Amino acid sequence: MGTRVQHALEQLKMNGVRITPQRHAILAYLLESMAHPTADEIYRALEPQFPSMSVATVYNNLKMLMEAGMVRELAYGDNSSRFDANISDHYHIICKQCGKIEDFSYPSLLEVERQAQHSTGFQVHGHRLELYGVCKSCSAVH
Asked: Which InterPro entries match (predicted)?
């Protein structure tokens, strides 16, 4: 098991969250998958391991993991929320054709927050940035 999974489980325990085998599996899957899966994709991936688990179980556990601050929900207008266990500051670039989402970091956007705060007097609590394009696999097809 990866150290990221171990660290996440320890953090949950510290928050008084009981670690069920399903929670462990969902968290591990999210941390290892860089694909930002939907709840359905998580369910399908883990179903062989947990035949009695329902999609509702996956949703409830995701909700609990979000409340614990371990997982972020990415809602991108296509009705299917995707989930991301990388809660560090990073941004997403999304393929308009296949919907694939990749992470990237760009630290100087913090400078944009400072500038916005300075020129408007607002207290900035965060920002969200999404870029849209066509991924390598989709571009290769056309």
From this structure: FUR, Fur_C, WH-like_DNA-bd_sf, WH_DNA-bd_sf
Task: Please give the Cα distance from 51 to 93 (Å, whole number).
Answer: 34
Q: Which of 29, 28, 37, 35 is nearest to 9 (CA)?
A: 28
What does the pLDDT read at residue 34? 75
Q: Is residue 133 over pLDDT 80?
A: yes
Q: Is residue 110 classed as helix, strand or coil in its secondary structure?
A: helix
Percentage of the chain surpassing pLDDT 70? 94
Q: Tell me how far apart the alpha carbons of residues 138 and 142 are, in angstroms, rounded to a whole number.
A: 7
What pLDDT, on a 0 to 100 scale, did the predictor assign at position 134?
93
* CATH class of residue range 3-84: mainly alpha
The highest-level CATH class for domain 91-141 is alpha beta
Where do the structural domains in the chain lie, given as residue ranges?
3-84, 91-141
